[in-house]
Write a structure and sequence with these properties.
The complex is a heterodimer of chains A (about 260) and B (about 80). By secondary structure, chain A is mainly alpha-helical. Helix content of chain A is about 65%, strand content about 5%. In chain A, a hairpin with a 2-residue loop joins strand 2 and strand 3 (about 25-30). In chain A, helix 2 (about 60-80) packs across helix 3, helix 2 (about 60-80) crosses helix 7 and helix 6 (about 180-210) runs antiparallel to helix 7. The longest helix of chain A is centred in the C-terminal third of the chain and has 45 residues, at about 215-260. Chain B is mainly alpha-helical and about 80 residues long. Chain B has one domain (about 5-75): Up-down Bundle (F1FO ATP Synthase), CATH 1.20.20.10. Helix content of chain B is about 90%, strand content about 0%. Chain B contains three helices and no strands. Chain B starts with a helix and ends with a helix. The chains are: A mainly alpha (about 260), B mainly alpha (about 80). The interface of A and B includes residues 190 and 252 of A.
Chain lengths: ~260, ~80
């Protein structure tokens, strides 16, 4: 391989660049490319919902799309929480749609415009951790609000034998406390790993094309490019699945807080 | 052994975890399909559980990836 073709850095895409530097009280609160993409996601989400909330009696295509998504989330929440889950549909819907849109925005081919590259908001642990804390905090607040200190009975499942009372609550406590970490880590790592993989494959394609030996583009670049198309499709699937899993787990955790298993 | 070499070997060993998690994910979907083909009427109701199992199996593979990334970039 040609050494001078330039090393492709797959981690560069996750770099946060300040677009409008701003410093308040010693804290860096610049408007970064991450903030920009959050605004884009918000705008896209707002546009999507605005176009479909006309409340026509006979829904058009757009309204059907919006109703399809809301019906999907509504179904998921009500099947895991039960009739009392109606209150939590807006929260789960917002989380689901934000994550879905942010994941898809990171996959958009903005790179064809020179100097612009897409930024995946959810590929940063800080963002996903805030989302996870939002979900976990809701569980805590709802649980203590509804059940008071009785909420701690979550750690003692029904039918625990008395001689295991020293072990089961400990395990349950750990599995409860690990939830925000697993929620945040899963989303963050899935997005990071997928994007790194795609950039590595793109590096194979470009470095292969730049190689001096004539056989390299045929043997390396073309198979890598075909593989990349497949991986891109898989990555789109993962985007949707991760958003779905986040929303599903959030509604399951809310079920724990509402109904105490 | 050189510390840098040990880190890279460790990161490579972490890939074993990712491969094992692939087996786990395959097992989740394979078992689901096995059950779903026996009783297709009940399959749709279990989709949520399918994805919970998938998420749990996948998380452990992703943790292996995190270990590799920490070894390469942080440690």
């Amino acid at each position: 391989m040609a050494g001078e073709s330039g090393k492709i850095d797959p981690m560069h895409q996750f770099q946060i660049e300040p677009l409008a530097p701003l410093n308040i009280g010693g804290y860096d609160v610049s408007f970064t490319n991450s903030s920009l993409f959050m605004m884009i996601v918000l705008g896209a989400l707002w546009l999507f919902m605005w176009g479909g909330m006309k409340r026509d009696l006979v829904p058009g295509r757009w309204q059907m799309a919006v109703e399809g998504v809301t019906g999907f989330v509504n179904n998921m929440v009500s099947s895991s929480v039960g009739p009392e889950g109606k209150k939590y549909v807006p929260l789960v819907f917002s989380l689901f749609m934000f994550i879905l849109m942010a994941n898809f925005m990171g996959m958009m081919p903005f790179g064809i415009v020179p100097g612009v590259h897409p930024f995946t908001v959810t590929s940063h642990l800080t963002v996903t951790a805030v989302l996870a804390v939002l979900s976990f905090g809701t569980v805590l607040v709802v649980g203590f609000w509804r059940h008071g200190l009785h909420f701690f009975s979550l750690f003692v499942p029904h039918g625990t034998p008395w001689w295991l009372l020293w072990l089961i609550p400990l395990i349950e406590l750990f599995s409860f406390l690990i939830r925000p970490f697993s929620l945040a880590l899963r989303l963050f790592v899935a997005m990071t790993a997928g994007h790194v993989l795609m950039k590595v494959l793109a590096g194979f394609v470009i470095n292969g094309l730049n190689a001096q030996a004539a056989w390299v583009p045929l043997v390396v670049s073309i198979p890598s490019f075909i593989l990349m198309i497949g991986i891109t499709l898989l990555e789109l699937l993962v985007c949707a699945i991760q958003a779905y899993v986040f929303a599903l787990l959030t509604s399951l955790y809310i079920n724990d807080a509402v109904n105490l298993h | 052994m050189d510390a840098e070499a040990a880190k890279l070997i460790g990161a490579g060993l972490a890939a074993i975890g990712a491969g094992l998690a692939a087996g786990g994910v395959g097992n989740v979907f394979g078992s689901f399909l096995q059950g779903a083909l026996r009783n297709p009427a009940a399959a749709d109701g279990q989709q949520g559980r399918l994805f919970i199992g998938f998420a749990a199996a996948e998380l452990l593979g992703l943790l292996a990836f995190v270990v590799a990334m920490i070894l390469i970039f942080v440690a």
